[in-house]
């Protein structure tokens, strides 16, 4: 047997590479189809927005964005969207809790006063919402995906006496 002839024989290289490529394409295609069949593809699309918020508490008189007036021990909390993704108002909630109660307010809530934002409005950098809180409240800005199947807290504020 001649060693030179064995090393120089490359007649079967092309068919082997072709088979390897076909198997790789089949495996990748099966993985992509499998993620959507099992429902994992939908979960990838339902991600929470990335946004930052600042909070400015002022114990003063005045009405908030929802028409609430001042009561003893209350103050105004101005929540400002500082940057990041724009968020539809209908998916954004302000939740608050004090020693006595828990509340959830939709930013686009219909109330006796005209809401500052309607459901399809987008809150982007610079957008503000003012809410009336007690100085012992803890307030969170919460994103809730359409359909309500997932939520995430985007910001948190604790009152001076919380």
UniProtKB/TrEMBL annotation:
Pfam families per record: Pilin_N
Keyword hit for Transmembrane helix: yes
Keyword annotations: Membrane, Transmembrane, Transmembrane helix
InterPro entries xrefs: Flagellin/pilin_N_arc (IPR013373), Pilin_N_archaeal (IPR012859)
The name this protein goes by in its record: Type IV pilin
Sequence intervals crossing the membrane: 12-38
Family matches, as NCBIfam families: arch_flag_Nterm
Residues in the signal sequence: none
Domain Archaeal Type IV pilin N-terminal intervals: 11-99
């Amino acid at each position: 047997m001649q060693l030179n002839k064995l090393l120089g024989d490359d007649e079967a290289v092309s068919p082997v590479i072709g088979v390897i490529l076909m198997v790789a394409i089949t495996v990748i295609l099966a993985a992509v189809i499998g993620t959507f069949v099992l429902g994992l593809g939908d979960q990838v699309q339902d991600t929470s927005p990335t946004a930052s918020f600042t909070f400015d508490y002022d114990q003063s008189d005045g009405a908030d964005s929802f028409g609430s007036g001042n009561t003893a021990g209350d103050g105004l909390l101005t929540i400002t969207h500082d940057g990041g993704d724009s968020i539809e108002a209908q998916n954004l909630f302000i939740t608050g809790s004090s020693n006595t109660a828990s509340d959830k307010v939709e930013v686009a809530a219909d109330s006796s006063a005209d809401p500052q934002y309607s459901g399809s409005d987008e809150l982007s950098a610079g957008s503000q919402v003012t809410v009336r809180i007690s100085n012992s409240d803890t307030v969170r800005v919460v994103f809730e995906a359409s359909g309500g199947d997932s939520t995430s807290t985007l910001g948190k504020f604790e009152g001076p006496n919380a």
